[in-house]
Amino acid sequence: MTISTVSAATNTSTSNSDISALSGNYQMFLQLLVTQMQNQSPLDPMDSSQFTQQLVQYSAVEQQIKANQSLTDLKSMFAIQSALSFVGYVGKSVTVDSSTADLTNGTATWNFSGSAAASAATIEIHDSEGNTVYTTVQKLAAGEGAFEWSGETDTGGVAPAGSYTISITGTDASGKAVKYTSETTGTVEAVDFSGTTPMLSIGGQLVSAYLVKSVKSAS
After folding, report:
1. pTM of the model
2. Band of pLDDT at residue 46, cut at 50, 70 and 90
3. Quick one: CATH architecture of 92-217?
4. What is the mean pLDDT of residues 63-88?
5. What are the extents of the domains in the chain?
6. Residue 165, Cβ neighbours under 10 Å: how many?
């Protein structure tokens, strides 16, 4: 497992570069101002109001960049703290919103919820390439339910272990399509922080950590 800090490092490097460039310009401005004051004509003194205004502007920009750098540092700190909190999922059994489950030890289980009862709902199981390997028609009640698949295929064989996706379609008594949502439960094997969203590795599948609905100790 690797916690990615590339983005934070890039932002911090940019802020440091900005401050360094500003500091160089600021010092050069002060040197020019002092040089001009040392060489001004006593009979025709320079108008310092413009230099004073620029000096104030430089100071304001410097403070803004320093504030941005502090915010960047805080953002990086919070990102690391958030990442460490997700590490606690490793080894735990989590339930996530997902239509994909793993067929292991001859069983794959999906939990689902239907917006209404369906007298003849079609349940299809698809392999990782999208092929339909198993189809059944069942009467489903409204609300929460579960479907357990033993790996049996439509051709009479047994599907190999791996990841499979479920799809459920059905209509209610009025002929209106029933809306189904599905979820799956599995043990978190690792956490991937390489992208913008922490991803949990469950049975070789990457699932957004923000889809977790419940966490418990793996049995």
Report:
1. 0.54
2. low
3. Sandwich (2.60)
4. 70
5. 6-39+48-87, 92-217
6. 17
